[in-house]
Amino acid sequence: MQPSMERARYNMIEQQVRPWDVLDDRVLTVMRELPRETFVPDAYKGLAYADVEIPLNESAAMLAPKLVGRLLQALDVRGHETALEIGTGTGYVTACLAHLADYVLSIEIDPALAEAARTRLKALGLSQTEVHTGDALAGGVGGGPFDVIAVTGSAPTSEPMAKLKQLLGDGGRLFIVVGEAPLMEAMLITRVGNAFREEGLFETSIPVLRNAPLPQRFAF
To answer: Is 209 a domain residue?
Structure first.
């Protein structure tokens, strides 16, 4: 491991992630040890540990480290649990989930991103992950129920949230960002029997999931 990268990873935790109220030791350990630079496109290697989103294509971005930390902490993933991720991207969040869960199924709509993520995850020996290419919002999710669902893009309406929460098992948790720029809200939905408890976590703004339903616009 390059000392400079190790120092950058330490600084990311201490200057970005922890100050954003990410205090779960398991999450901090995973993010401190996982080589984030491995998941960053070559053109942006210098930003691997910066407090920014990293663009992947015209509609997707790698989430800022502090948001990944809050996502993982909110989901409170346990070692025996199964996780579903919507939006694989480069595979970084997938890898974080894989270190916390027993199994991770990740769905990526972009075939090139999906294939590159598979290669990275395989190189790290994360055999408990599967990356499928498809549109999760159009019924492209097989299996379930899941203990946790992580959505790495935003939904302008609550329609995707309503669909995805039906994939949760009893006690399952869903992290999703809902709303339109510049003001979106990160939500945690927990299934309790046949009911769902919704909790607003924080305000943010992240790229919209491809093919996510848009709000109806009224014409006068």
So the answer is: no
Structure tokens, 151: 């959505």
- As given in the structure block, the two tokens for residue 208 are 């919209």
Q: Has residue 160 been placed in a domain?
A: yes
Q: Pick from 129, 139, 75: which is nearest to 106 by CA?
A: 129
Token digits of residue 116: 């590159």
Write down the pTM of the prediction: 0.94
**Alpha-carbon distance 205 to 177, whole Å?**
8
pLDDT in tens, 65-112: 999 999 999 999 999 999 999 999 999 999 999 999 999 999 999 999
Q: What's 178's domain CATH number?
A: 3.40.50.150
Which residues form the domain of 96? 3-204
Please check whether residue 212 lies inside any domain of the structure.
no
d(CA 155, CA 187): 11
In a domain, 25, yes or no: yes
Task: Confirm if 116 and 90 have CB atoms less than 8 A apart.
Answer: yes
Listed residue (55, 83, 73) closest to 207, CA to CA: 55
Do 101 and 110 contact (CB within 8 A), yes or no?
no
